[in-house]
Amino acid sequence: MLVLDESETREALPFPGLIRAVEAMFAGECVVPLRHHHAMEVPGEAHATLLLMPAWQPGRFAGVKILNLFPDNHRRALPTIIGRYLLSSGKTGEMLALIEGGELTARRTAATSALASRFLSRPDARRLVMVGTGRLSLNLIAAHAAVRPLQQISIWGRDRSKAEATAEEARRAGFDAVAADDLEKACRDADIISCATLSSEPLVCGAWLKPGAHLDLVGAFTPKMRESDDEAVRRARIFVDTREGALNEGGDLVQPLEGGVITLDDIQADLFDLTAARHPGRRHAEEITLFKSVGAALEDLAGAILAYETARFAKAGA
């Protein structure tokens, strides 16, 4: 069985190929049962989450991700997300690969946002605001840059020193990145705003979104969490990764739906619709678009298959 650590997983998942793999999985045949989502008490700390996410392509591949999300792991200098992905043959059941789950999750999440951005952001988008300084931030910057000609990156975080450190990492990766002091000012100038935080209160206000802006909401993966306010969802045309996931787990939509701010009819399409050309995505340059994702097991399966095939080919050629 092939075993990939964090760096090997990263090397096996370049964003252009991963975005294509995620797109193909949404457009193709994949069985995705309801994922197991369990809250776990951690005495004296924020509740943790245990995720079990299975998916399979009949006769080809099957896989399951076991993921632990511990929000207070930063106190121990540990990653928030820890897990593994087990990929098996969908024909024989043979276990093929064990893949580092945190890196797989970060990269497939960013690739999914970039896939949505390809349908929803303006093709000439050049200014990106990254809200959040965690593991996902650099992945989201790189993924969005793989589909749009980004030239200016502003990074905002509650902790200015973390925003500076993330901006420095982004510059080392070749991006023109700076830490932003004023989130409102940065957002008012942004073509794309990408949020990846654990916030329980809105951070981005709809009044800040300029005509043509695209809002990418990746954090707030429980109904009690929120990254955008009611005005943002009221002004924007709304898209999701999967309706079942986003409309049951994503607080950015669950809360305004419960409050009557929006209705189910306001959800324009999901990635199944977009990749199958049942919906065109962005219709004109001035509209504001919003994409809410909470993650789907088929994204993990797409990434795991790509990582397995890429790494196996590399080892065979070594």
Structure write-up:
With 318 residues, this protein is an alpha/beta fold. It folds into 2 domains: 2-104 and 298-317, ornithine cyclodeaminase, domain 1; 110-296, Rossmann fold (3-Layer(aba) Sandwich). Helix content is 36%, strand content 24%. It is built from 11 helices and 14 strands. It has helices at residues 6-11, 15-27, 101-120, 135-145, 160-172, 183-188, 230-235, 243-249, 251-258, 271-275, 297-317, and strands at residues 2-4, 36-40, 48-57, 61-69, 81-89, 95-100, 127-131, 152-156, 177-179, 192-195, 214-217, 237-240, 267-270, 289-292. It has an 8-stranded parallel β-sheet, with helices on both faces. A 6-stranded mixed β-sheet has the order 1-6-5-4-3-2. It is globular and about 55 Å long. The relative contact order is 0.16.
Short description:
This protein is of the alpha/beta class and 318 residues long. It has helices spanning 6-11, 15-27, 101-120, 135-145, 160-172, 183-188, 230-235, 243-249, 251-258, 271-275, 297-317; strands at 2-4, 36-40, 48-57, 61-69, 81-89, 95-100, 127-131, 152-156, 177-179, 192-195, 214-217, 237-240, 267-270, 289-292. 50% of the residues are buried.
Number of helices: 11
| CATH homolog superfamily of the largest domain | NAD(P)-binding Rossmann-like Domain
The H/E string reads EHHEEEEEHEHEHEHEEHEHHEHEH
The percentage of residues in β strands lies in: 15-25%
**What is the radius of gyration?**
19 Å
**Domains (count):** 2
Query: According to CATH, what is the class of the largest domain?
Result: Alpha Beta
Shape: globular
Keywords: NAD
InterPro entries: NAD(P)-bd_dom_sf, ODC_Mu_crystall, ODC_N
Pfam families: OCD_Mu_crystall
GO molecular function: oxidoreductase activity
